[in-house]
Amino acid sequence: MAEPSAFSRVRLAELLAVLSLGADLGMGQPMEHVLRQCLVALRLAGELGLDEDDRKVVYYGSLVSWVGCHVDAYEQAKWFGDDTVLKADFRRTDFSGPVAEARFMLRHLGGGGPTLGPTFTSAAERARLGLAFLRAGRRDAAAILSNHWQAADALAAQLGLTPGVRACVEQTFERWDGRGAPKGARGEQILLTARLVNLADVVVAYHRSAGTQAAVAVARERRGTQFDPAVVDAFTARAEELMADLDGGWDQVQRADPAPGTPLTEGELDAALLAVADFVDVKSPWTIGHSRGVAELAQAAAWIAGLPDAARDTLRRAALVHDLGRLGVPNSVWDKAGPLSLAETERVRLHPYLTERMLACSPALAPIAAVAVQHHERLDGSGYPRGLSGAALTPEGRLLAAADLYQAHTEERAHRRAGTPDEAAALLRAEVRAGRIDAGAAEAVLGAAGHRRPRRGTWPAGLTTREVEVLRLLARGLSTRRVAEVLHISPRTAGHHIEHIYAKTGATNRALAGLFAARHGLGPSTDPATEPGSARDDGLGARARDD
């Protein structure tokens, strides 16, 4: 009988905890913020006498409630600059009325963006953005919280979490005073499990920066506005005990796993990693479908290269989640059309390390981490994050690096057009000649690519081919008018297509349409003529953010 795979020991709690680390980075929080929040919420549940089923809801709801916070990071960056700074400040604000909301928006509006750099250069630019925000930005801002819970809920459904957990996730942004989202639930209409998670999230953030007294103070300040008075009273009565010993959050959360003896099947793991891949890729409209494409290409190349079954499985799974660390870099960097500054480049070069660090927290996922971290390493030591070279690069890592480079250069980015398959092949072979990419890995990838684009006869949700073209542009963040210009149709016709797309897919805005596109493998078109922009670099030179 064959030995069981190391991956047969992966538990859902481990995978959710890994994903929570990515959510931490995307929210501008240190790693293990969500894990600490989970511990505090569980302790509060014990204080209040919640039964086993509700404690399970608190456990899984804590881990998954915030994972959707990057799904519309592109829109956030467009108005507010560094989306991670915006979300970090979110916990520092009590949105108790219109004045507090307006102050928060004005404090961040015009903080910089993908096209404007870290700060505006003139008051006029800020004023122009302010006028644009009045026209469209407020609508976008109102949709942000709804997008976040819907994305988290969809992922929870894909991972098989219970209706109780999903109901808790839906109320992540509700407030005791009824001023929350998405339904404005108030008081006892909000599940007690959600009330615990909401309080724990904020007090943990304050505890980390200023200690238990600060956590108690913010709970009391928001008693009756954001938080349930009874939950606040239970927390403040035992705050020292509830906030004690939060270091080593990973181990403590894993010990609290409600299903410790129920690992995922390999099929369930593959489905979960695919869902995570699509989820990560919607961080930027330029990368929708990227991880799925890299995984398909790497898997086919692994067959050509003759890798053993176990190595092929590891490579495919590593390819799906190789860009998990992207969540830790703001969209003001990923979506910038101009050259990156030195500081921005360093942030980009960190993302493979972040991927490894998150995955390696789980011993069962550590083999994936060891391959995923190599996707930007190069044979001559010029890659990152560690500058590995030669024999230090594994066969799986070499294939992943080649597949990632080829796939990325057939996709458009904010700073350059998409390359044709022939151009991407020429680039890959040039990297081989320069001693940066392994020759065997490159030829396996090129053989797998076949230098032709696959065609499909039917599209998901009954979409037409034209609607798929519109969806790809919509997911990239193009306005209705710009979609019309690119496709040489009238704005009215483009608007009709968008209405049909929303009706067929169940999406209600661009962010959710982009998530639908990612989950169904409908990444942006690689046609170099699509959405040309004068600010883009038409060259195919290597850039740090080309993943």
UniProtKB/TrEMBL annotation:
The record ties this protein, via SUPFAM superfamilies, to:
C-terminal effector domain of the bipartite response regulators, HD-domain/PDEase-like
Return the Basic and acidic residues bias intervals.
Answer: 534-547
Q: Which residues form the HD-GYP domain?
A: 31-251, 265-461
Which InterPro entries does this chain map to? Cyclic_di-GMP/3'3'-cGAMP_PDE (IPR052020), HD/PDEase_dom (IPR003607), HD_GYP_dom (IPR037522), Sig_transdc_resp-reg_C-effctor (IPR016032), Tscrpt_reg_LuxR_C (IPR000792), WH-like_DNA-bd_sf (IPR036388)
Region annotation (Disordered) ranges: 522-547
Q: Which Pfam families match?
A: GerE, HD_5
In terms of Gene3D superfamilies, this protein maps to: Hypothetical protein af1432 (1.10.3210.10), Winged helix-like DNA-binding domain superfamily/Winged helix DNA-binding domain (1.10.10.10)
Q: Where is the HTH luxR-type domain?
A: 456-521
Against PANTHER family, the record matches this protein to: CYCLIC DI-GMP PHOSPHODIESTERASE TM_0186-RELATED
Protein name in UniProt: HD domain-containing phosphohydrolase
